[in-house]
Design a protein that fits this description.
Blueprint: E1 5-8, E2 11-12, E3 31-37, H1 38-45, E4 53-58, E5 64-76, E6 83-90
Antiparallel strand pairs: 1-2, 1-4, 3-6, 4-5, 5-6
């Protein structure tokens, strides 16, 4: 039986912690912290901060999951002197959106629709 392996743009990730990816809905990006050996970080990943990368996870059955547009955001404290830990996120971290604080499509207590604009066709 083959062992599971996860790579980020061809660089094997350290199996010290859990390596997982979740496909979730909404505006908030999925984030995770992963580790690599210091030499791999310096040679292959350090220059790719903020660039789209591909995550490949192959499980013990040989099934491969590929996730595109994974970004390294920044380095975080590591649990060992020979490893570099970094925060990754999906592409939603780049999305710009503003908070809308307003209630829309709320019916009145008597259930009549609320008209907030005048229709140019009816003149009402």
């Amino acid at each position: 039986m083959a062992k599971s392996i996860a790579t980020l743009d061809g660089v094997p990730l350290s199996g010290v912690g859990a390596i997982a990816w979740t496909f979730q809905t909404g505006f908030a990006p999925f984030t995770a912290v992963w580790n690599v050996h210091n030499t791999q970080w310096e040679r292959q990943l350090k220059s790719k901060i903020g660039q789209p990368l591909t995550l490949r996870i192959r499980d013990q059955r040989g099934t491969e999951t590929r996730v595109q547009d994974v970004y390294i955001l920044h380095v975080v404290p590591s649990d060992g002197p020979k490893r570099t830990a970094f925060l990754v996120a999906d592409r939603r971290w780049k999305w710009t959106y503003s908070l809308v604080s307003r209630d829309y499509n709320i019916p009145r207590k008597d259930r009549r629709p609320r008209r907030v604009w005048r229709s140019p066709d009816t003149g009402a």
